[in-house]
Amino acid sequence: MTKLVLTRTGYTVLEAADGLEALALVEKYREPIHLLLTDLVMPHMSGREVADRVLALRPDVRVLFMSGYTEDATVMRSVESAAAHFLHKPFTIAVLTQKVRAVLDAPAAAPGT
Description:
The protein has five helices and three strands, in the order ααβαβαβα. The protein is of the alpha/beta class and 113 residues long. It has a three-stranded parallel β-sheet, with helices on both faces. Strand 1, helix 3 and strand 2 (62-67) form a beta-alpha-beta unit. The longest helix has 13 residues, at 93-105. It is globular. It comes from Frigoriglobus tundricola.
């Protein structure tokens, strides 16, 4: 559903089933990637691990985490420690599109933050 909404909003969306597939896509896709939208809890590796590895390859990528496990302190600590952008599931179409736009429009983080 998220892919459909973002595609209909005008974004080009690359979809991956898990973190390993996402990394493979990032490595082979030659066009700019402006935003990584990833769930924090996924098979094979966490969204935080995916983001760290994507940022190592493409430091200019913006990251937006999402999760429905906001009561889990371990999950939330990985977002808070990075001062990251976060989207709480479930979310509405309006909240999704507004948050994606806000993350893309936000000033770039200083290197190393």
